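From the methods appendix. Each design record in this collection lists the tokenized structure first, followed by the designed amino acid sequence. Records were kept in a plain field format so they could be parsed without special tools. The example shown here is representative of the layout used throughout.

RECORD:
FOLD TOKENS (295 positions):
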């Protein structure tokens, strides 16, 4: 019993250490994006960071202070909506970023506007993505987006887009249109980097297959591809061959984006007339699933 408790404690400590390490790496990366690219050239981003950068340009207040102040309401919201652990980690991450901006002397990498927008967004997005992998956020607007989406018809993506539209519009009015356009480019680079770090290079694809040779297809997926299959019981309706009132087996499998072509090629060898539906899914757990990189 003591050995089991010790093993559990070791696992928890390892997980917590890994998450703290990811948060610190994220903070260092975000600091590089800000002090090495965006700040020296008065560039903006979206979200809470974009609001902080805009206020820093307009008021001259130190960005380290603004980052903490702007995110405090979102941290409280995260505590109320998610958990105290999330709120504590987020507070730690944002305070660490403030200290990083204050004390770490990053070099100014370039003054080329296109490089600043792309690579500044890349490093900032990498920082946000790594922090999310560590169980926290550097941008509190995502917490606000979740809060609003739960109480209205808008999705999380709609809320984030609305917030960023207001930020970029304000930048166009208060500074100039060119700055707003470069801010959009920075935001796109950051968001794509966040998606890559969270979802990995191999997105998951769910596949539903209706075939008269369902048993052969099932064996091909499990034995040749090494992936799990769920067999759903269904009933055919009216199709090209008329009304067919008989039971069928519908195969449901999840593969990575890099495996989908191989699956379809193998399926053509078994049954070229099979009916196939495929769609992207955000994430999966358990089963015979190939894990993504960085998990």
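DESIGN:
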């Amino acid at each position: 019993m003591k050995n089991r408790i010790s093993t559990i404690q070791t696992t928890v400590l390892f997980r917590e250490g890994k998450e703290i390490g990811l948060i610190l790496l994220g903070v260092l990366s975000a600091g590089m994006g800000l002090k090495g690219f965006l700040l020296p050239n008065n560039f903006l981003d979206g979200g809470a960071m974009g609001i902080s950068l805009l206020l820093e340009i307009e008021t001259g207040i130190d960005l380290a202070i603004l980052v903490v102040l702007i995110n405090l309401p979102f941290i409280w919201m995260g505590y109320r909506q998610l958990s105290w652990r999330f709120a504590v980690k987020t507070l730690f991450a944002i305070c660490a970023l403030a200290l990083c901006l204050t004390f770490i002397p990053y070099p100014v990498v370039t003054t080329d506007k296109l490089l600043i927008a792309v690579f500044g967004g890349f490093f900032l997005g990498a920082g946000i993505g790594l922090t999310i992998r560590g169980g926290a956020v550097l941008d509190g607007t995502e917490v606000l987006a979740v809060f609003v989406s739960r109480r209205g018809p808008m999705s999380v993506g709609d809320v984030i887009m609305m917030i960023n539209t207001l930020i970029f519009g304000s930048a166009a009015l208060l500074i100039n249109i060119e700055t707003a356009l470069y801010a959009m480019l920075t935001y796109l680079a950051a968001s794509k980097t966040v998606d890559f770090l969270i979802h990995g290079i191999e997105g998951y694809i769910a596949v539903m297959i209706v075939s008269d040779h369902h048993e052969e297809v099932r064996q091909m997926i499990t034995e040749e591809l090494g992936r799990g299959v769920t067999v759903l019981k269904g009933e055919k309706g009216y199709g090209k061959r008329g009304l067919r009132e008989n039971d069928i087996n519908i195969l449901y499998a999840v593969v990575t984006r890099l495996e989908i072509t191989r699956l379809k090629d193998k399926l053509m060898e078994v049954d070229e007339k099979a009916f196939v539906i495929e769609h992207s899914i955000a994430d999966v757990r358990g089963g015979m699933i190939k894990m993504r990189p960085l998990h």
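APPENDIX NOTE: DSSP finds ten helices and six strands in the chain.
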